């Protein structure tokens, strides 16, 4: 018999330790000393960072320095012959190796200190939590639980529930039902943004949403978001008690939305979209969809901050279904976690959308299970807010997914079992 058999089984298994916190927890469970844990934890977490369009001299130095730290770096073939002025760089290594890399880059010329700061910021954001956001009388603590945004469409032509809540009384009852079912935010919209939908006039949008905002604000304690790209509509709704601006144009719509947000201290949801709903699905194309959407959102967050909106009052939304093919939408969902590098709370709206219908072959009112799958996957990939029609079902999906992903405190959170 092979002497190795005398040792018996060791129960070898591959572990998923994809954060420093997870690594530290595992080391503590083994009884590793605090000093040993501090040394080992950043060595045990692996990351891949892609830099886009770095100056060629900087790219070559970055590669050399990362290799010297024991990590890996890849550049396009053309970069070796200095055929391009700029180059992408893919870096892979442990957190410790990245830390040593950026420490060295901060002492170098050719714009490398700025690149070092970008790498450090992306890594910190990816592994961290956005700061809390004060909305009305509530504080949203992102990273601790998922927040549910219930959809209230005051439109006759929305793709899902158009015409159901046109009267203010019906809308109020629906808002109250969503709050009872677990909604944290009620999102009120007066213009359909389904693919191909035409714009309505400002007067028509105001006529649809103002009575509903007034009633919901006056009869509930709901946190209300107004789904509009018109600054005038947002302002009137904020006057009546709305709290959040949900802007599908990311502050590129009608009027000076940034000034309205600044004046009221209102958080803004900045969403990615190609074109407008009337033409956004006319052959949407991307060089690389996740990078393109991420860079757009990064630029819009920077714009909001330049206009005086606090960074802590920005939320990003990759815009599932807005100027994207089903393949684009699925790719974004598959790689949603990469948007954590932006350091902002992530809102995801997949509810009943056409990609679910295409995949499952189901009509719009029979997509609750497909929506549930996308909501659970979004939360597991870092989504902080999910925008949904079926609040009762999705609030349960969110709570259960949170228990798995973020941890569960036991009986104080509900019945044991």
Low-confidence stretches: none
**Strand count:** 13
Summarize the main sheet: 8 strands, parallel
Quickly give the structural class.
alpha/beta
What is the assigned CATH homologous superfamily of the largest domain? Dihydropteroate synthase-like
Summed over residues and divided by their number, the pLDDT gives a mean of 92
Give the spatial strand order of the biggest sheet.
Answer: 11-10-9-8-7-6-13-12
| Principal-axis shape | globular
Gap from first CA to last CA: 46 Å
- In CATH terms, what is the fold-level topology of the largest domain? TIM Barrel
- Number of helical segments? 15
* Helix and strand element order: HHEHEHEHHEEEHEHEHEHEHEHEHHEH
CATH-level-2 architecture of the largest domain:
Alpha-Beta Barrel
Domain unit count: 3
Over all CA atoms, what is the radius of gyration?
24 Å
Helical percentage: 40-55%
Can you give a write-up of this model?
- This protein is α/β, with parallel strands linked by helices and 417 residues long.
- It has 3 domains: 26 residues, no CATH class; 83 residues, Ribosomal Protein S8, Chain: A, domain 1, CATH 3.30.1370; 274 residues, Dihydropteroate synthase-like (TIM Barrel, Alpha-Beta Barrel), CATH 3.20.20.20.
- Helix content is 41%, strand content 15%.
- The protein contains 15 helices and 13 strands.
- It has an 8-stranded parallel sheet. Strands 1-3-2 form a 3-stranded antiparallel sheet. Strands 4-5 form a two-stranded antiparallel ribbon.
- Strand 7, helix 8 and strand 8 form a beta-alpha-beta unit.
- The chain starts with 19 loop residues before the first helix and ends in a 12-residue tail after the last helix.
